[in-house]
Amino acid sequence: xxxxxxxxxxxxxxxxxxxxxxxxxxxxxxxxxxxIGAEGMGIYQLIFxxxxxxxxxTASGIQTAISKFVSGKMAVGDKKxxxxxxxxxxxxxxxxxxLACYILFxxxxxxxxxxxxETRCAELLRLLAYSVPFAxxxxxxxxxxxxxxxxxxxxxxxxxxxxxxMRTSYFLxxxxxEKGIAITPALAVYGMVTEEVVSFLLCSTIIAVHFGNxxxxxxxxxxxxxxxxxxxxxxxxxxxxxxxxxxxxxxxxLFIPLRLRVYGxxxxxxxxxxxxxxxMSIPLILFPSAxxxxxxxxxxxxxxxxxxxxxxxxxxxxxxNTIKYSLILGILCTGVFLALGxxxxxxxxxxxxxxxFILTLSWICPFLYRTTTLTSVLNGLGKTTTTFIQSxxxxxxxxxxxxxxxxxxxxxxxxxxxxxxELVIAFMALRSLKKEYDYxxxxxxxxxxxxxxxxxxxxxxxxxxxxxxxxxxxxxxLIELFSLAILLTLSYVLLLIxxxxxxxxxx
Length: 507
Prior knowledge:
The chain is mostly helical. It folds into two domains: 3-441, no CATH class; 450-507, no CATH class. Helices cover 85% and strands 0% of the residues. It has 18 helices and no strands. It has helices at 3-35, 37-75, 79-106, 108-116, 121-129, 131-147, 152-179, 186-211, 221-263, 267-286, 290-308, 312-349, 354-361, 365-380, 384-409, 411-434, 443-470, 477-498. It is globular and about 70 Å long.
């Protein structure tokens, strides 16, 4: 199997697993919205930036570095070097995760009071602390297999994670109801901890079998020292990038409810609004990103490999395809959310707020998905400092909107900040790539024809709905919603094939 087919196969596996996981997670969010309520969702979402910060410090950048270096080692047939890279990254990650676990557990009260200003978060942070080391090991193992292009392992664990999290939370919910125990956000946290433990056990077993009885005691010290230096040189800016992102999320968790109170909301309403936005609307907007996430994961080692081989043409084609297909996906998602956003909020979450949030956020899709993939290309080219600077600028812009716009315009001020941030980052990423690679930007194929296909597709679903209703048949709201979304997507794809924007492979 050639490299192109390996990449396509890997992307398909990750995408299918990603969609399955997101579908499970989607229904899980609906389950949580019913069980812990909007305010409970707000409290639950408050702790996520802290947890994400811990994972960023301990694993995220290291996972990417492992993927890149393992890919490079395997390209020259150095299997032992690839294993040494993994062990070095795992050692660093475990040391950092132990420290993060200690801080989260013993300083939970301090973090909750001084940073989150919500005492109910302390218990949740102590529970989350247990999952950090397990998540670190799991992340490093995934990075190793991404570097090998063996996406089946991360895909399987991702799917099992989602199933375990939902099953655990539902099982505990039944027990709490039977015993008369109050339902709190801790229900969701127990599910998160369990999922990480199960993923750790599964991944550890798989990689133990993979490595067999290899003895690493004889690994040359010089090799490990070199690996350590290389790992830190790449992972440090990546980690700082992720930390800055999660620092913003932590500031959002604190500032958004606080600035909403300045706008005129009470504590409960501000937390509920924040919970609806971050626990319902944004996850729905991010649902289609399973495609871009899987593509991004594989783009980094692919571009890195092409750069090592000095294959500029391959890199240019990769950039062009990345821009084209991320825009095609983003335009589709914008149309789906614009056409059906209000219904999604009402039918799925029974929330009057979720729908308007989804409508506003829909405009972010083309830029969000493109930024995700282009950032991965830049990281694959070793431009980690560039992505770091770009993310920093975007984050500062978002902070500005949170601080200045939210007190004046409410939560809409934050939504505009998200859109502005993604616009700026996408523009800077395109400029950075243009400086080194003379790629072509096909406006007709990437924007004009997809927009035309989208408008026609929306017309098709409106006509179809009217035709069905005129026959006196009104489907259940949930079935009608999913049917219209599927019909819009299929119409859009078929029209792009007719317009020859998407070309079917020749027999």
